[in-house]
Design brief:
single chain, about 425 residues, Porin, 14-stranded antiparallel β-barrel
Length: about 425
């Protein structure tokens, strides 16, 4: 049975590449909407994770957490979600629903004070489409694709409750934006398709530190720090312009341009800090802060084929996120199922890295969640609901409200454990 679970998990690892396509018009800018590496347990707690002290969960938000696991335990976690967005612009309204595989991650010990994690997570995503009338016909735009990250993490216990960890990620994938002009027969205008594609093949490092200070037998505080250095973005960018035939097929290539991403694009550094409180393994409370100075990074608008701008810095905003969350259960050991259930709640505020027509994009949200124990309480089914509200300021263009329903299954199995009775 355990081998079958591994096969299913590996299958889902590849399915994640095809998922992560929640639809939002704001994903047409920058690298799309950025993901926060929030797994099923964190999702119900507002996304906190830098300083959460929980040995029974995989927490890629802070790679230092891996080494705190039980040395006989093998963990793996898979998740998916359904997202519904309600969009409003003036008197226009629209609703979109998408379902996606979200993540698949593993974690295992490699020594008494060493542990490793391997997984596939979304990094960014783009999925939108719209059509508008113009003076001589119709103009439609759509975006598809996303950037995924395959990571390998290693962590070690340095001293008592001090842990150090590193995630090395391979970033891959592409985002394609397509713009189509279809003129009416009344105008002598050629139908055209313009495409801008960002194809990323790169790496990323996340360095984490975590320390737990016991207060007494039942109470403790945990502190976490995570840092990702700034770097050039590697890959290719393709800008192509095609003439569209009456059959709807693209024929002659009118223009084509290929450039290296590292010439005009950077990945911003990332700084994360968190504090967590744990009471008797029954109550966990966390507070996180994350900051990314994207305004100091080069970023050429994707539709531009070459840099004619005086400066590529300041195109994007600095991104920051504040999140808080808690998990509670009545008892660690109890014969009553309700006592062993985990109840979660959280909230967050985020100022996006996107700057749209001199407007700033912000998001506020609230979450609730449940952890349902299975298989002798070692494993969990994690359910969560997230409500979010996105809008631009000072000029509000498209207002987006959304609901994300997530389900994750966190398996906890004994590893290197041999039964004495055959």
């Amino acid at each position: 049975m355990l081998k079958n679970r591994y096969i299913v998990t590996l299958t889902l690892l590849f399915a994640v590449i095809l998922g992560a396509k929640s639809q939002t018009p704001y994903s047409m800018y920058g690298m799309g909407t950025l993901d926060d590496n929030t797994l099923g347990i964190n999702a119900g707690m507002g996304g906190v994770g830098y300083a959460i002290n929980n040995k029974m969960q995989i927490n890629p938000k802070n790679p230092a957490s891996y080494a705190a696991m039980d040395s006989l335990t093998f963990l793996f976690d898979i998740g998916m979600n359904v997202e519904t967005g309600w969009f409003k612009e003036g008197g226009l309204k629209e609703t979109k629903t998408t379902a996606n595989f979200d993540y698949a991650v593993l974690q295992f010990p490699i020594g008494k004070h060493l542990a490793a994690s391997l997984g596939l997570l979304p990094y960014s995503k783009s999925n939108y489409e719209y059509t508008q009338s113009i003076a001589f016909g119709d103009h439609s735009s759509n975006g598809t694709g996303g950037i995924s990250q395959l990571y390998l993490g290693l962590a070690a216990k340095l001293y008592k409750e001090l842990y150090l960890g590193v995630n090395a990620s391979f970033l891959f994938g592409k985002i394609t934006h397509t713009s189509t002009i279809l003129p009416t027969s009344d105008y002598n205008v050629v139908a055209m398709i313009a495409q801008a594609t960002m194809h990323v093949t790169d790496y990323k490092l996340d360095i984490g530190l975590r320390y737990t200070q016991p207060i007494n037998e039942k109470n403790s505080l945990t502190f976490g720090l995570v840092y990702s250095p700034k770097k050039k973005l590697h890959g290719k960018k393709y800008n192509d312009l095609y003439q569209l035939e009456t059959s709807g097929e693209a024929s002659a290539t009118l223009e084509s341009d290929t450039t290296s991403l590292k010439e005009s694009y950077d990945m911003a550094a990332s700084y994360g800090a968190g504090i967590g409180y744990n009471w008797d393994e029954r109550l966990i409370v966390g507070l996180d802060f994350m900051y990314q100075p994207w305004s100091k990074s080069n970023f050429l608008p994707l539709w531009k084929k070459s840099s004619s701008m005086p400066s590529l810095k300041g195109v994007l905003n600095d991104r920051y996120r504040i999140s808080a969350g808690a998990e509670y259960r009545n008892a660690v050991y109890s014969t009553k199922y309700f006592d062993r259930m985990r109840f979660r709640i959280g909230a967050y505020y985020e100022r996006s890295y996107l700057r749209i027509a001199s407007n700033n994009l912000s998001e506020v949200g609230a979450t609730i969640g449940l952890g349902l124990p299975i298989i002798r309480d070692k494993s969990l089914i994690n359910l969560s609901a997230q409500y979010f509200h996105r809008k631009l300021t000072p000029q509000s263009l498209v207002v987006e409200n959304g609901l994300v329903l997530s389900i994750g299954i966190s398996f906890n199995e004994f590893w290197f454990f041999k039964n004495k009775i055959e």
